[in-house]
Specification:
With 255 residues, the chain is α+β, with helices and mostly antiparallel strands. It has 9 helices and 3 strands, in the order ααβββααααααα.
Length: 255
């Protein structure tokens, strides 16, 4: 999946395509085991400061799925993911999930709203989430910068991911507003209030960002399909005309 991830990176790929490559032609598998290791240089008691991952990577001899009943493991690699890298991976997964919700909505306006509701609640409701606040408390302070000078680039990357999340959340809240039935209007109001507070706070600290992906309404989609259909018709007509022009005229008999 690593090669596919590089090919799909930064592109709004449909979830069906991504899911296909998740379970087809796979040779590399990973699983992570979280564990706690106290940082002797950090006095803070926040669990995010001491949450490491032990990641095991397995490479099989042949890609799966296949006709064999079992596949030997050819290579095994075990390495550790530091708390700051774990935070970055978590933010990347969250932003990818938000992007996927937007992509699904642009493809299918009849999408189910429940997964989006759960995602937005987990991110925006501080009583549920608190993730970004934890990251700021642990990594964005003088103590961490002093004791971990080599992580300066990683700290800036985490800040960028937090800032990049705001425009994605903005679009997802708009989608939720369009799709939310009457019984979810109180939740919608709560999400909008939380988002306004979060947006103001993040943009003041890390700057305002834009995203390439946009919402497509039904009028835009119909116009796009109409233009595409017209272009196909023009191509067909042009091809037929060219065929008629290039077709040799049969000689008529003199008799």
């Amino acid at each position: 999946m690593d090669e596919k991830k590089q090919r799909f990176s930064g592109k709004p790929i449909a979830e069906q395509i991504v899911n296909f490559y998740k379970v087809n032609n796979i040779q590399k598998f990973t699983f992570s085991r979280p564990f706690t290791r106290k940082d002797p240089l950090m006095e803070i008691e926040n669990e995010f400061a001491h949450l490491w991952l032990e990641r095991t990577e397995l490479t099989t001899t042949y890609p799966l799925p296949g006709i064999l009943r079992w596949f030997p493991v050819q290579f095994t690699k075990v390495h550790e993911i530091s708390p700051i890298r774990n935070a970055i991976e978590t933010m990347e997964r969250t932003n990818k999930t938000l992007t996927n919700h937007i992509t699904v909505f642009n493809k299918d306006k009849s999408m189910q709203i429940n997964p989006l509701s759960l995602t937005l609640t987990g991110i925006l409701d501080a009583a549920v989430m608190g993730g970004i606040k934890n990251y700021e408390e642990v990594f964005f302070n003088n103590e961490y910068e002093t004791h971990h000078p080599d992580d300066k680039i990683l700290v800036e990357k985490l800040k960028d991911l937090i800032a990049d999340q705001i425009p994605l959340l903005d679009l997802c809240v708009q989608i939720h507003k369009q799709k939310a039935p009457d019984n979810l209007q109180p939740l919608q109001k709560r999400l909008e209030e939380c988002f306004c507070v979060m947006k103001t706070d993040v943009e003041e600290k890390y700057g305002k960002r834009d995203c390439d992906i946009k919402l497509e309404n039904e009028v835009q989609m119909r116009r796009h399909y109409s233009i595409t259909s017209d272009r196909l018709s023009d191509i067909t007509i042009t091809s037929d005309t060219a065929l008629m022009v290039n077709m040799p005229i049969p000689l008529q008999s003199a008799y």
